[in-house]
From TrEMBL:
The keyword ATP-binding applies. It comes from Filimonas lacunae. Pfam families: DAGK_cat (PF00781), YegS_C (PF19279). Residues 1-124 form the DAGKc domain. GO terms for molecular function: ATP binding; kinase activity. Keywords: ATP-binding, Kinase, Nucleotide-binding, Transferase. InterPro entries: ATP-NAD_kinase_N, Diacylglycerol_kinase_cat_dom, Lipid_Phosphate_FormReg, NAD/diacylglycerol_kinase_sf, YegS/DAGK_C. This is Diacylglycerol kinase family enzyme.
């Protein structure tokens, strides 16, 4: 019987995702388990004699553990995801949006997927990202959402509010000058958004890089020009009106090395909003180390 460690964000999910219920469900599936809350510092001592971690939470919780592994603070064990967050962008990219019971049962026949992580240098300190890094509209959306995140409880309500704010930002935001080099090729110009993605979606399930594979050794770069404002606006309008067939039609650029210079001061690494003190020139690359995620054979 395999021993696993549950790293749980107790603030995520519904009532059926309490510590007691999670432990009960995982034990019922035939695993020995130890429980650690990510709201304490004890979880950083995880990994002793465990076969893999179970991260029960949203994208922010997964990022917290992934960064700790990347910094060699926590052993690099395989990561199983129980998606309990608002957007669950990482789980969606991994194809892990089945029921909790189905995901738990899949761990008996899992495969390991090697997953890339990104590094940004040129900031005050190197930045880690698992989902994406960027400038433009998205970090401004994060800033505008901060007061609402504290007062809106429901995941669907938060997503809807984010889409409404994003729609307004796209209408009003100016295109800004960027000096951008992607694998030694110049892509400088005026953009509404310059986003370097490692997974398929960010924020309120914006599938800006629907073909991204976080294990292929490439990043996906999304550059939205003034002429493409209408395309982005139409896509977000479909999402905020609950269209199930909304598709972002602009293609991403595959990249291994990206350099960005801009007068913009608002930027983000995953769900972390950052405000630079001065214009920066930043280098974005893939890290040498990889993470290990559990996936089922059907999602490979």
């Amino acid at each position: 019987m395999k021993t696993v460690e549950i790293l749980h964000n107790p603030n995520a999910g519904e009532e059926e995702h309490t510590q007691k219920q999670l432990v009960k469900s995982i034990k019922a599936a035939g695993f020995k388990c130890r429980y650690l809350s990510t709201k304490t510092d004890d979880w950083k001592d995880a990994g002793k004699d465990a076969a893999f971690y179970i991260i029960a939470g949203g994208d922010g919780t997964i990022r917290k553990v992934a960064k700790s592994i990347n910094c060699n603070e926590t052993p690099n064990l395989p990561i199983a995801i129980l998606p309990l967050g608002t957007a669950n962008n990482i789980a969606q990219t991994m194809g892990l949006m089945q029921s909790t019971e189905a995901i738990i049962n899949s761990w008996h026949t899992y495969h390991i997927k090697q997953v890339d992580t990104g590094t940004v240098t040129g900031y005050t300190k190197p930045l880690f990202f698992l989902e994406g890094f960027g400038y433009g509209i998205f970090p401004k959306l994060m800033q505008q959402m901060e007061p609402f995140d504290k007062v809106i409880d429901g995941a669907e309500e938060r997503m809807q509010k984010a889409l409404e704010l994003l729609y307004s930002l796209i209408l009003a935001a100016p295109a800004v000058d960027y000096t951008i080099t992607i694998d030694n090729k110049d892509y400088s110009g005026k953009y509404l958004m310059a986003e370097v993605m490692n997974i398929q979606s960010i924020g309120p399930n914006l599938h800006l890089a629907p073909h991204a594979d976080p294990g292929d050794g490439y990043l996906d770069v999304i550059l939205i020009t003034e002429n493409q404002r209408g395309t982005l606006l139409a896509y977000v309008d479909q999402l905020r009106n609950n269209a199930t067939d909304a598709v972002f039609s602009l293609h991403a650029l595959a990249a291994q090395q990206v350099q960005i210079s801009s007068s913009e001061l608002y930027l983000h690494a995953d769900d972390k909003l950052l405000i630079a003190e001065q214009p920066l020139t930043l280098d974005i690359t893939l890290s040498e180390s990889k993470l290990q995620f559990l996936i089922t054979p059907a999602t490979e």
